[in-house]
Design goal:
Helix content of chain B: 10-25%
Distance between the termini of chain B: 10 Å
Number of domains of chain B: 1
Number of domains of chain A: 2
Structural class of chain A: mainly alpha
Order of helices and strands of chain A: HHHHHHHHEHEHHH
CATH class of the largest domain in chain A: Mainly Alpha
Radius of gyration of chain A: 20 Å
Largest sheet of chain B: 10 strands, mixed
CATH architecture of the largest domain in chain A: Orthogonal Bundle
Oligomer: heterodimer
Strand order of the largest sheet of chain A: 1-2
Shape of chain A: globular
Distance between the termini of chain A: 13 Å
Largest sheet of chain A: 2 strands, antiparallel
Number of helices of chain A: 12
Radius of gyration of chain B: 18 Å
Order of helices and strands of chain B: HHEEEEEEEEHEEEEEHEHEH
Largest interface: A-B, 32 and 27 residues
Shape of chain B: globular
CATH topology of the largest domain in chain A: Cytochrome Bc1 Complex, Chain D, domain 2
Structural class of chain B: alpha+beta
Strand content of chain A: under 5%
């Protein structure tokens, strides 16, 4: 693949069928390029100061390195930690609380959120219509003149939906192309025994919502805000662990700076509460050797070719 | 057709889609469209935005904004079968956004209706689950119209905003929105025709629906501004959704000759 080619959604061997169907939004090189341009263009925010790419950085697997919560227009802080963006086409719902159930509609949330991009879909469409360059790019991408919200959202989906990360050392091990060291192998075995019931392979999440015991009295109601159900209080989407070494800080509120702190939490810091996930009652005790093996294994989930793929970069040529 | 054109002219972005839908309409099945006109009332009097009204419990309220989606229209035949109003996956045909502040939005037509005798009409207050989860849409369903929740993705099905001195909100606001994704708050309404409606090659009908806002407060659930100034979360909005379905009644139906339809209004 060259820097100039357009990614297509290819389903890696052994992966489930994607949830987002590109049949209704076929990826074209002009459509993908438009989506990429929009992703990196602050024109989508109210005052032209914040782009999607401001908080979703490719070198951090499209998370926001060193920022506990997202930073929006006017320097205001958001409420939750910016998640990495990859393999989104497989996610049945998006956001920490699963509030968005369709990939195309996800950008409407940050665009309208006063603590993120602070604008609105209508405002963005209006700005794009009056822009010197965009009307032509939209016509190229969709085969006829017209800038509307559907085209804006579909172009963005052509970019975000083709961000596939499936070429980590772990993947090459599973495909039989590379061998693991004994310690990596130990780490994988331990991971499968202790962690994989929620962080299920190959996507390293089962897409469920769980309370992992961060607080005895959760400050952020999480999934319950969306579902209206008390039992969802303090539950959040189980995140994928792919590229986890790149996406610090961790947890929905970014409270942990390192994976060591995350393992400290699971081995000794789980707080009981009525909605604590039953699998975490009593925590997940780990010996020092087991901790090192797990950390070494988690490093194998880093996908260097994904974070260096120039097709996804702001300056791509 | 002229009604559709007005709509299209006001929303240039969706114009070509609506035109396509409109053009296809005449040839798809034959038959005449059925015209629907909606009046918002309080009891028998026309609703006026900003005017003060009283509920049965003695609370005062006023409306500043009233918008909702109607969709999935069906007409029941005398033999208990249904005519299902066509909707298209590629456009918002069959989905109507009614806005008290926009006179044109309160008149629309469904069909074309096959010739026959019809005994009642059914529709959804809101958007069906399939379309609500179908991704970015156009026309009346364009999320840029603002009838869309961004924090809990999905259309706002029914939106009532106003004021009440009894409202416990700091600014005495009343904000009732139904919508969202899971546990759909879309409600189905069936209205029986008092006398059957005949659709022939030469005659269709105009249905004049009244949506009585007094029933928003004095409906299946008694809503009190003091205890419920705001309904936006899934639990609270379920009661508003139930009541929104009880607003509608048929005031009258009159015959609409083909010539009248062609002229539009």
């Amino acid at each position: 693949m060259t820097a100039h080619s357009t990614p297509r959604l290819q389903v890696p061997e052994g992966w489930p069928a994607p949830r987002y169907d590109f049949a209704g939004n076929p990826v074209t090189s002009a459509g993908f390029a438009l989506g990429r341009r929009l992703f990196y263009d602050p024109i989508l925010s109210r005052d032209g100061s914040v782009a999607c790419g401001s908080c979703h950085q490719q070198f951090a697997a499209f998370a926001h390195l060193d920022h506990r919560v997202s930073h929006g227009i006017g320097g205001v802080n958001g409420k939750r930690n910016t998640p990495g963006l990859f393999n989104l086409a497989w996610q049945p719902e998006l956001m920490w609380d699963g509030s968005v159930h369709h990939l195309e509609l996800q950008p409407v949330a940050p665009m309208s959120n006063p603590v993120e991009m602070g604008g609105s879909l209508a405002l963005a469409v209006d700005k794009l219509r009056r822009d010197a360059r965009y009307p032509e790019l939209f016509a190229e991408a969709f085969g006829s003149p017209g800038v509307d919200s559907q085209r804006l959202l579909r172009a963005l989906a052509q970019f975000t939906g083709t961000l596939v990360s499936a070429d980590s050392r772990y993947d090459r091990f599973v495909e039989g192309k590379e061998a693991f060291t004994p310690q990596e192998r130990d780490g994988l075995d331990l991971f499968r025994e202790r962690c994989a019931s929620c962080h299920r392979e190959p996507l390293f999440t089962d897409f469920s919502y769980r309370n992992n015991g961060l607080d005895a009295a959760p400050r952020d109601a999480g999934r319950a805000v969306i579902s209206g159900r008390d039992e969802d209080r303090g539950r959040f989407r189980v995140p994928s662990l792919r590229n986890i070494a790149l996406t610090a800080p961790y947890m929905h509120d970014g409270r942990y700076d390192s994976l060591e702190q995350v393992l400290d939490h699971y081995s000794g810091g789980v707080q009981p509460s009525p909605t604590l996930d039953p699998s975490l009652a009593g925590g997940v005790p780990l010996s020092p050797d087991q901790r090192s093996a797990l950390l070494i294994f988690l490093d194998t989930l880093t996908d260097e070719s994904f974070i260096h793929d120039r097709r996804f970069a702001e300056t791509h040529d | 057709m002229k009604n559709r054109m007005n709509l299209a002219a006001r929303h240039l972005a969706a114009a070509w889609l609506l035109l396509l839908a409109g053009c296809g309409q005449g040839t798809a099945q034959g038959g005449l469209p059925l015209r629907i006109e909606i009046s918002h009332v309080v009891g028998e009097a026309p609703l006026r935005l900003g005017d003060s009204y009283k509920t049965g419990a003695g609370d005062s309220w006023s409306a500043e904004r009233l918008r909702y989606y109607l969709s999935n229209f069906r007409l029941r035949r005398a033999d208990s079968t249904w005519f299902v109003n066509p909707q298209s996956a590629d456009s918002s045909r069959g989905y109507f956004l009614v806005d008290e502040a926009d006179a044109a939005s309160k008149q629309f037509q469904i069909g074309p209706i096959p010739e026959g005798t019809y005994s009642g009409i059914e529709f959804l207050v809101g958007v069906d689950t399939a379309r609500n989860g179908a991704g970015a849409q156009t026309g009346t369903l364009d999320p840029a119209r603002g009838m869309f929740w961004t924090w809990n993705t999905g259309y706002i099905f029914f939106q009532f905003e106003g004021h009440s001195p009894q409202s416990s909100d700091g600014e005495h606001a009343l904000t009732y929105h139904t919508g969202g994704g899971a546990d759909s708050p879309a409600r189905s309404v069936f209205l029986q025709f008092q006398t059957p409606v005949q659709v022939t090659a030469d005659n269709s009908a105009e249905l004049h629906l009244y949506a009585d806002l007094s029933r928003l407060f004095d409906g299946a659930h008694a809503l009190r501004p003091a205890t419920m100034p705001t309904a936006m979360d899934p639990k609270a909005s379920a009661e508003v959704a139930d009541n929104s379905a009880g607003l509608f009644r048929i005031d009258h139906i009159h015959k609409l000759p083909k010539a009248g339809l062609a002229q539009g209004r």
